[in-house]
């Protein structure tokens, strides 16, 4: 429900808007590997996950998500559908598929495959960015940037495959932190072309559809495995919850992003897109992944007296994380904190209270309360929009 206000007084006007673009067929094919990756993560949170399960899967999700964001930005800046780019994207799919297959044991026996898969994606990213270093480019990218950011980290991740299994997660955390420090220190320097806002918003929206789709699939397969009236009732309530999230996201979050990023100057637009589409949507999407796992468990355990505590945290914590990420996006867009608090405080607090008190509630009641929160969130946003709250955005 994050929606921005009008630009601040004296803010620089945006440059000419680039021509409209949509996702290409290779990008849509590329996204299919993330269907598998998201399914692996959701499977790891199914049942009664503990705190370590949440932490490990959250950590394993970031490199894959970050590579998706990097490749999406490269496709956004360089509208090329030639054989070289297609081959690069196909190789990226293979490397990411290896990472997805390694997820269940990535902190153990399959850690080397996970690390080498991510190293391979860095080489793909280098191939996508290297043509932008040519002197014939209007704003050529200095070669040291892709060499350090892509090749340098490919070498380091390859080396991490040889680290003892007990050390790998710590080594990967250091490498991710170093990569983020390098990226943040650049502040958008070296970006050769304007960001195509519509294309970027569409690509992120398509990824949100992927994780929502995993949630629907989890509900359907759990209902198939537990063919009872109780399971059917929980499945219907789960679908209402997911439908409310879809409705509010694509009515408000996407509109806000197009308006605010589209109004910004080239470098400002890139940094804003990086923060919102890259960093903050990592939490938006993981929240839905956790919710997918929790809904599957809730359907399967519909006949029980209560849900396992891990499933309650997947449900309530996932929805709370989703709302918290949108509150952070709204702040990044410049919305006043007091206006955000009106919907963010109940949006975060109510699911957390349900997670804490859920052991005393039947599974159907847990899902009903979460669905009611999501529907109430949507109704509030729609009423605010109809009252003219969004008029200043146009």
Order of helices and strands: HHHHHHHHHHHH
Give the beta-strand count: 0
Radius of gyration: 21 Å
Low-confidence stretches: 1-17, 389-394
Principal-axis shape: globular
Structural class: mainly alpha
Strand content: under 5%
User: Please, how many helices?
Assistant: 12
> Termini, distance in Å?
17 Å
Average pLDDT over all residues = 88
Q: Report helical residue fraction.
A: over 70%
Give the biggest sheet: none
The tally of domains stands at 2
Pfam family, one: LtrA
Keywords: Membrane, Transmembrane, Transmembrane helix
Transmembrane segments: 54-75, 87-106, 112-130, 146-163, 169-188, 200-220, 232-250, 271-299, 311-333, 340-358, 364-381
InterPro entries: Low_temperature_requirement_A (IPR010640)
């Amino acid at each position: 429900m994050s929606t921005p206000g009008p630009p601040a007084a004296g803010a620089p006007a945006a440059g000419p808007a680039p021509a409209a673009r949509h996702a290409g067929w290779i990008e849509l094919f590329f996204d299919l590997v993330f269907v598998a990756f998201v399914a692996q993560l959701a499977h790891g949170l199914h049942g009664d996950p503990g705190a370590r399960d949440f932490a490990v899967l959250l950590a394993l999700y970031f490199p894959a998500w970050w590579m998706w964001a990097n490749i999406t930005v490269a496709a956004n800046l360089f509208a090329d559908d030639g054989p070289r780019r297609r081959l690069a994207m196909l190789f990226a799919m293979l490397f990411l598929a290896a990472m997805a297959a390694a997820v269940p044991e990535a902190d153990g026996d399959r850690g080397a495959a996970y690390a080498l898969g991510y190293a391979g994606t860095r080489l793909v990213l280098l191939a996508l960015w290297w043509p932008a270093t040519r002197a014939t480019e209007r704003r050529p990218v200095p070669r040291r940037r892709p060499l350090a950011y892509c090749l340098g980290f490919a070498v380091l991740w390859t080396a991490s495959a040889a680290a003892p299994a007990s050390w790998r997660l710590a080594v990967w955390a250091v490498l991710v932190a170093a990569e983020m420090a390098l990226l943040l220190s650049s502040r958008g320097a070296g970006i050769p072309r304007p960001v195509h806002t519509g294309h970027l918003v569409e690509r992120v929206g398509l990824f949100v559809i992927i994780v929502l789709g995993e949630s629907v699939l989890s509900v359907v397969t759990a209902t198939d495995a537990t063919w009872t009236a109780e399971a059917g009732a929980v499945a219907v309530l789960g679908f209402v919850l997911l439908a409310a999230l879809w409705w509010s996201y694509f009515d408000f979050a996407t509109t806000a992003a197009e308006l605010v990023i589209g109004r910004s100057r080239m470098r400002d637009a890139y940094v804003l897109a990086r923060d919102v589409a890259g960093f903050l949507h990592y939490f938006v999407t993981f929240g839905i992944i956790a919710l997918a796992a929790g809904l599957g468990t809730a359907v399967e355990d519909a006949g029980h007296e209560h849900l396992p505590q891990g499933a309650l945290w997947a449900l309530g914590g996932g929805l709370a994380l989703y709302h918290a990420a949108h509150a952070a996006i709204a702040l990044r867009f410049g919305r006043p904190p007091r206006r955000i608090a009106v919907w963010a405080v109940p949006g975060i607090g109510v699911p957390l209270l349900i997670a804490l008190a859920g052991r005393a509630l039947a599974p159907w009641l847990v899902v009903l309360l979460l669905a009611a929160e999501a529907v109430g969130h949507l109704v509030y946003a729609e009423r605010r929009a109809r009252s003219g709250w969004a008029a200043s955005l146009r």
